[in-house]
Amino acid sequence: MMGKIEARLAELGIALPTPAAPIANYIPFNVVGKLVVISGQIPLKDGKIAFTGKLGAGVPLSEGVAAARLCFINLVAQLKAAAGDLDKVVRIVRLGGFIAAPAEFTQHAVVMNGASDLAVEIFGDAGRHARTTIGVPSLPGDAAVEVEGMFELA
Fold first, then answer.
1. How far apart are CA 24 and CA 61, in angstroms?
2. Nearest Cα residue to 9 out of 77, 111, 93, 92
3. What is the set of domains in the chain, with CATH numbers?
4. Where is the Endoribonuclease L-PSP/chorismate mutase-like domain positioned along the sequence (predicted)?
5. Rounded distance, CA 149 to CA 12, Å?
6. How many CA atoms are closer than 13 Å to the CA of 12, on its beta-carbon side?
7. pLDDT band of 151, cuts 50, 70, 90
């Protein structure tokens, strides 16, 4: 039987991918008590980085938002691997966003809303979270966006 969160994903037309394997010396998630901390996820789709480059220097804002949304989908895939059942998620505690951009770019928060808005669409009020969003000069594989997260389980 499909759980509430799985049903919501289906309503939104979201199929979770196979969680990405780490590309360096780290683990994809760490469960500590009731918390799951998930390593940063880049906008992978079908094993390839779907959005590369820098916001404000060739990557349009709309693509940055889509990249953040895709990063969050990849976070949820890792979360399912960690929790087994997405209905165990009590709340999203925190999201951290890294936006590849030149120094003059100032719309980091708009880009990160791609992840934050989807969090609330999927998890409802439990998806409201604390957040940090910062600009960086580059990300692994020239990804445009990376998102990490912390989640509380029942």
1. 29
2. 77
3. 4-153 (3.30.1330.40)
4. 6-143
5. 21
6. 19
7. very high
Tokens of 71: 């990063």
Distance (Å) of CA 135 to CA 94, 118, 147: 17, 21, 12
- C-alpha gyration radius of the chain: 15
131 residue type, one letter: R
- pTM for this structure? 0.97
Q: Which two tokens stand for residue 66?
A: 């889509």
Mean pLDDT, residues 100-113:
98
Residue 17 has a pLDDT of: 97
Residue 1 has pLDDT above 80, yes or no: no
- Using alpha carbons only, what angle is made at residue 32 by residues 78 and 26, rounded to the nearest 5 degrees? 55
Q: Which DSSP state fits 149?
A: E
Three-point CA angle 103, 106, 37, nearest 5°: 90
> For residue range 7-20, what is the model confidence (pLDDT) as tens digits?
999 999 999 999 99
The larger pLDDT score, comparing residue 62 to residue 1, is at 62
